[in-house]
Design goal:
alpha+beta, Alpha-Beta Plaits, 4-stranded antiparallel beta sheet, 42% helix, 32% strand, elongated
């Protein structure tokens, strides 16, 4: 499965409903699992972003659908990065002329 890093910023609605955030997280974990993926790490962070999630999905379509579902909840805005592990990066670089 491919790895994705989701950077999240709270919206005005998200900060107003912050006490419900742990329940939303649990619901989203169940949702990604139902889609065939999994959350491997989640952090509340300080700085430009409020949360960082690291997860896996069977393909880009599942990852995009999940990100759209999370965004549609209205509590966070997301930026998603597809991640390549060191071994895969080495293979990619090895194919360069």
């Amino acid at each position: 499965m491919a790895t994705y890093i989701m950077l999240m910023k709270l919206t005005d609605q998200g900060i107003k409903e912050i006490k419900a955030a742990p329940q939303r997280l649990q619901q989203n974990i169940k949702r990604i699992e139902a889609m065939g993926g999994k959350l491997t790490a989640f952090y509340s962070v300080m700085g430009e972003y409020d949360y960082v999630g690291i997860g896996e999905a069977p393909n880009d379509e599942v990852a995009v659908a999940f990100c759209l579902e999370v965004g549609a909840q209205g509590t966070v805005r997301t930026t998603t990065l597809k991640a390549f592990p060191a071994e895969q990066f080495a293979k990619i670089v090895g194919k360069l002329p």
